[in-house]
Amino acid sequence: MLRPWLRQGPRATRSFTCPQCLHLLRRSPQQQLQQSLLPSATLASPRRSLQTTAVPESTDRVPLRKQLKQDAKSLRARKRQTREDEEASRQKWELTVGIEIHAQLNTEAKLFSKAPTSSAELPNSNVALFDLAFPGSQPEFQIATLLPALRAAIALNCDIQPVSKFDRKHYFYQDQPAGYQITQYYEPLAKNGYVDLFRYDGIAPEDGDHVRIGIKQIQMEQDTAKSQEYPPSMQLLDFNRVSHPLIEIITMPQIHTPATAAACVRKIQSILQSCSAVITGMELGGLRADVNVSIRQRGDVAGNHRYGGIGGLGQRTEIKNLSSFKAVEDAIIAEKNRQIAVLESGGVVEGETRGWTIGSTETRRLRGKEGEVDYRYMPDPDLPPVYIGEDLISELRRTLPTGSDALLSLLTGAEYGLTIEDAKPLVELDDGARLEYYQDVVDLLRQQHPGTDSKTQQALARLASNWVLHELGGLLTKAELAWDSQPVPADSLASLLDHLQRKLITGPTAKQVLALVFDGDQRSIPQLLEEENLLLRPLSREEYIALAEAAIALNPSMVEQIRQKNQLGKLGWFVGQMMRMGEKGRVEAPKADTILRELILEGAK
Amino acid sequence: MSSLLREAERCIANQNSYTALNALISTLHSSGQWLDRIREADTRRAQGRPESRLDGRLVVIKDNICTRELPTTCASRALDKFTSPFNATIVQQLEDAGAIVAGKANLDEFGMGSHSVNSYFGPVKNMYRSRNAEDLSAGGSSGGSAVAVATEQCYTALGTDTGGSVRLPAAYTGIVGFKPSYGLISRWGVVAYANSLDTVGIFGREVSSVRDVFDILNQHDPRDPTNLSPGTRSRIDDHFTSPRLASRTTTNSLKIGVPVEYNISELAPSVRRAWSRSLNHMLQQGHTIHPVSLPTTQIALSAYYVLAPAEASSNLAKYDGVRYGTSLNGDHYHPQMNSYLYARTRGEGLGSEVKRRILLGAFSLSAGAIDNYFIQAQRIRRLVQRDFNAIFLAKHPLMPRPLDGDEVNYKGSQAQVDVLICPTAPSSPPALSNLVGEGANCSPLDAYMNDVLTVPASLAGLPAASVPVTDESTESLVGVQIIGQYGDDALVLEVAGMLSNKRL
Lengths: 605, 504
Description:
The structure holds 2 protein chains of 2 kinds.
Chain A: H1 3-14, H2 19-25, H3 29-37, H4 39-54, H5 64-92, E1 93-104, H6 146-155, E2 159-160, E3 163-164, E4 167-170, E5 180-183, E6 190-198, E7 210-222, E8 226-230, E9 234-238, E10 245-251, H7 258-274, E11 287-297, E12 305-307, E13 310-313, E14 317-322, H8 325-344, E15 353-355, E16 364-367, E17 378-379, E18 386-387, H9 390-399, H10 404-411, H11 420-428, H12 433-448, H13 454-478, H14 490-501, H15 507-518, H16 525-531, H17 541-554, H18 556-565, H19 570-581, H20 589-600
Parallel strand pairs in A: 14-15
Antiparallel strand pairs in A: 1-10, 1-11, 2-6, 3-18, 4-5, 4-17, 6-7, 7-10, 8-9, 11-14, 12-13, 15-16
Helix pairs in contact in A: 1-3, 7-8, 10-11, 12-13, 12-14, 13-14, 14-15, 17-19, 17-20, 19-20
Chain B: H1 3-17, E1 24-27, H2 33-46, E2 58-62, H3 89-96, E3 100-105, H4 143-150, E4 156-161, H5 167-173, E5 176-179, E6 199-204, H6 207-217, H7 230-240, H8 243-250, E7 255-259, H9 269-284, E8 288-292, H10 297-315, H11 343-349, H12 352-365, H13 371-391, H14 405-412, E9 419-423, H15 432-435, H16 444-449, H17 455-460, E10 464-471, E11 476-484, H18 489-499, E12 502-503
Helix pairs in contact in B: 1-2, 10-12, 10-13, 13-14
């Protein structure tokens, strides 16, 4: 299938860049094909070559097992060394990173015409006269495109500017029909926002529990056309994508670790998606990042550069067009190390634009300062200013879905008491559908247990989370199905968990029933339990003792081991034996465990 | 034979006999559907229900205005075979009113020039000649439209006026040229030179025919984002129909302003004499004359030649031969040659004056120059507007409050007038031999100087008309300009009618 790489490849290298770097970025479709089809091979090759040099062919045959062990050991050693080196250089050098993110807005129409944004159509079918820069055509600003942009700006805690304006950014390239991109340079849509990053977002350990990264501004702009190169001399242009509305999000240079930079991009993507400002993420080319990287020696003289209002920084370089979170992290590490090497060998870091190829270990120079494009920003004389009323902002703010951070702190707080490990997937999975289902189950369960104390309420919430994520989730995974609330409606699961909570059924019975319902059993839970005779008829203490003694009698040596060596883990094995020996669904594990402890441990004293 | 058809055939005959003037780039085929359309218009007229006063009449359209039927070349090699897929709104409006597009008029490439000599299709010639029979400039950039009207190749014609491109050729060819207030007439389909200044203008032999066309085109068009909304239009109407302003024409005593800065030393004696005789005429009609000062007149020209090229450098970036237009790149593009795909298309497809202005504009927008050129010029543009607001009795309808306290003082010290009367051009038309070819002694800067009297009204977006008056003593034909407050187009046309074609 050609389609996936046709769509992704050119976009990955093409959009949001200026002409000079494009010449250098450009690769033939042939190369792109190889790269996207064989990512693992590209990634693995350096390691393989290391192995062949480490084990010269002339040496005597080493047993495979031994060789694998050696390899693993040397890999660990190398990783440790890298970590130590990284830490040493981190102690000496401070890294500073700022990020520019370009994201395709979720809109029906283009920014300045009524043409649809759908890019899956036949090439060059969704274009209006202005999109092609026909002589005499004029822009028709599509007001509705403001809505996702404003939602993004609100979700990123920005001040929406009451007046913003459109400017022309000039550069020549055949994917840019007018010879300029319409953007917002002098008066952007929104300013002064921030994004909060927590430990659970995957920030670097040295950043602690929380960092706040400032957002300098958010501006609206046009996307470019998609071009495909067929060497030696053919290029095809598809203008369907041209003038698709984008937002550019510019962070402050306040990031100091590569991991946190990647976490920042990931977090911004998830915020944009959760407020429906953006649909396609990085993996499909709907989001791209440029990073600005500089270093300075800690505690030493301040650098004399200033970016985004932050002074004392070192000379920065810009790495363009990063198309995955991993690429963001890897490119920053490589560029940081390159700058350190330059400075430590007495050199000077040049202000330049650099590129990054997935799987490589070094950034490469695209163009230096002398090759910088002067974009000759000019206010667009055809487009009036955009005025945004406070009423619109407050309405959008009111209807914006709750942010994931707020949801996480709610779920991990006193009311639900979930672990962050359970709360995160609930919030992130299935576009919020999983969380909605979970909420339904919890609400129904709590209705069954009114007036209970907060501890019970928490227990119910935890129980529900466990079953929604792990039990039901496990069934879906096993059946290789996407999330769907239909097979097990929320009220069925709530009813099942209610029985479990009231100890009317055992855990294993509950799992068994869940599987039945999942496989299509239409009966109600009470009816099913009744008809299948699954309701728990509790065993008496005497019956438990009888079962336990029978199990002990069959395995006296294990009893000795538990008593002599205090191997308490083996108690669980006895619990299992009792459940197998007893009547199906009637032996409750905790009770069996209690009896076993009495007989084996206390009986010995 | 019906009268409209006879008039049309006389126009076509004139088109054929005046081909040497090079006024038209493309014309109607001699036979065609248009003949039937004129017969139908004649019938409607006979029945007393014509579509409009333009019904069945031939109009010529400047070739930087898009037409579906005829090519739209902008007099550029870059578009020499280009036909637009759509009609400009104004073309559609004229056709809906029954008018027939009879040809596309020659011009300075993309409207850049003052003599209609910068054309890929060769220079336009004035039908008048100098005493020693030299060819004269028709004025520019809408020279072809002006000559077509002056030689009766059509009933009326459309041009575009960015810094005087309708008024100057009207003055040189002895006809009426009107540039309405910015934003009244749609620019959808008008190929941009400098969007913030580009205004569609109208040529006619009489003020009445110009007014007829203006009435058809003066409508809101949602496709042009710079076009005034219906709401704004009614605000302007209310403003000028208020009793105080409406009485200006009924009392028959207007306050005529004479801008002293327009009496420049370069003014030819014949022009100065015609100006003064025009003022005298108005005085005799019972109007009063008041000297006024517009101090930014001189620097306005510099500001114009920074702003217009800046916008042009941006607007003309689209002509790369990739999607339409002339491509001179050859069949194959070799990226490894590290040259831009369109370098040759632009290098050879655009003429020297266009390239000069693109370079000027690219420079004035560049990072190192923008503060000193583009930004300063925008400030001057504001001052020019303030100058005009200080001397017009009618307030600017879209700026009801003074910009700052300074203006109040400023206003207090000046006479308050209804319209300004001044010359359109400093001199009579120069010989073409001075402008092009071996004998050319006119630098681009000299050509720019010619626009000094028309540019201020363009920068302020004001309505301005040039009308022909004849100086009886020398029988010389001179263009006299009437400038009004923003939105006061009706008054400008009214005063134009008082002076137009007068022998003084």
